[in-house]
């Protein structure tokens, strides 16, 4: 008997959840895709964040809903603006790996005031992140619901 309360055991379990247990598929667009293409992709794929990849299929940037809204506000031709002009670009992208803790991801989302992180394959080369997943506030909410069922008094 460990002498730990059920609350302590639950806390420990929550702190052990890894990104790989809750990640979603990433939705990717090419760097030379237009803002119009990205809006269509975001709508059709039903996601709030797109990841932009370069011609080597490595992470180049992130597009949020508001990035696309902002680009749509002027009288610009959305078919002639490449997403690379408006995206948040590397190296200013907050990323995580499959083995990271979900709690750490939640802290990053709050800290940076963003909705999603790309999950990248472990790599030592910062310029060549391969995107293998997506983790969002929705995934974290799902974890919260799963673990609320484990609460015992
Ligand atoms: P929205 O802009 O629709 O409110 P976010 O809060 O996710 O959505 O994005 C806020 C800003 O942060 C956007 O300009 C977006 O490009 C950028 N951003 C989103 N996710 C990341 C990330 N993982 N790393 C760095 N910047 C990001």
TrEMBL record:
Keyword Repeat: yes
Keywords, alphabetical: CBS domain, Repeat
Shown part of the complete sequence: 62 to 214 of 214
Source species taxonomy: Bacteria, Bacillati, Bacillota, Bacilli, Bacillales
CBS domain: residues covered: 22-78, 87-152
Protein name, as recorded: Helix-turn-helix transcriptional regulator
Coiled coil: none
Source species, domain of life: Bacteria
